[in-house]
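Milestone 3.1: sequence recovery, worked example.
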């Protein structure tokens, strides 16, 4: 099992990236290209990779901090459904459609019943039918108001349930902390480990690996 002081396999690409970055520093690049270096750029890279345990130890504190931060980071959320919608989202969309459709139809029916009922009352004909239409109109109006209130309450509850949890809101901040810890480790690795190693290799003649 890897300890916090030992470079883990999954972090080897980061180490290689730092080495490659150091090889492009002007003093390293110019020394290799000028022909004064006892080794080539590829040989320097190979030597640094072989000495990664020694080099990584120079930034052990930052690496431990990076691993601790990465360990406490939340796991990635599960992938969405194939159609891109959740069951709750489907239900919310259906309830939303019904919440608009039912009160609208009830309001239209109420207006029609009341208009016909009071119209018949004004003409003084079919009073029994007119009273029935007026009663139906007011009943439908009550139904429209009740369904509109129920739909509004249902949509409000659905909106509250779909609010991101505190952990979800904190996740971007945690991810930023992980990235910052990673950058601090790589910077320490570059300044205290890789660059001094390369400078030493350029000053002391070595045989090709």
């Amino acid at each position: 099992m890897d300890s916090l002081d030992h470079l883990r396999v999954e972090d080897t690409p980061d180490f290689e990236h730092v080495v490659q970055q150091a090889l492009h520093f002007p003093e390293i690049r110019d020394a290799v290209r000028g022909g004064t270096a006892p080794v080539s750029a590829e040989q320097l890279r190979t030597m640094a990779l072989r000495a990664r345990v020694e080099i990584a130890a120079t930034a052990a504190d930052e690496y431990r901090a990076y691993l601790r931060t990465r360990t406490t980071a939340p796991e990635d959320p599960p992938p969405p459904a194939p159609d891109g919608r959740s069951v709750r989202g489907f239900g919310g969309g259906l309830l939303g459609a019904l919440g608009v459709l039912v009160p609208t139809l009830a309001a239209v029916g109420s207006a029609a019943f009341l208009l016909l009922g009071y119209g018949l009352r004004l003409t003084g004909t079919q009073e029994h039918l007119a009273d029935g239409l007026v009663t139906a109109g007011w009943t439908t109006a009550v139904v429209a108001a009740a369904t509109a209130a129920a739909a509004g309450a249902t949509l409000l509850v659905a909106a509250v349930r779909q609010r991101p949890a505190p952990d979800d809101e904190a996740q971007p901040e945690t991810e930023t902390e992980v990235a910052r810890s990673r950058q601090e480790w790589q910077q320490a690795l570059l300044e205290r480990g890789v660059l001094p190693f390369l400078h030493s290799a350029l000053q002391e003649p070595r045989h090709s690996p």
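The CA atoms of residues 88 and 158 lie 8 Å apart. Confidence is low (pLDDT under 50) at residues 81-91.
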